[in-house]
Amino acid sequence: MSRGLNKVMIIGHLGRDPEMRYTPSGRPVTTFTVATNRTWNTADGERHSETEWFNVVTWGNLAEICKQYLTKSQQVYIEGRLQTRRWEDAEGVKHSNVEIVASEMMMLGDKHENGQQNPNDATPEPDLSSDEEYPF
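Above: the chain sequence. Below: its structure as tokens.
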């Protein structure tokens, strides 16, 4: 039996502040959008740019962390899987939406730009101001 692979990794900027809600069972879920930019040159040397928007969904502890630490325009790394949701509205029109269900999130850029510490930075920066000698 062969295995499949559904993995996506993006680096981009948040398009809006994360929104958190809870399922009826009390499980937190947070959603937000991330924009990625791509630039390229055509054969005649003309430069083009394109922005792609991704809907991101996080669950559980990661949902709480994203709500607490992420803000609009912040740069993030997101890793997860693609999921397509399909539904039919009250008028019988079928809809679908592709989203990233995130399993990992890493805040990028200046870790103090929001005045908050990055939760991924578990160990403090070493204080190298002393005159102690190091064996390396």
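The longest helix spans residues 60-69.
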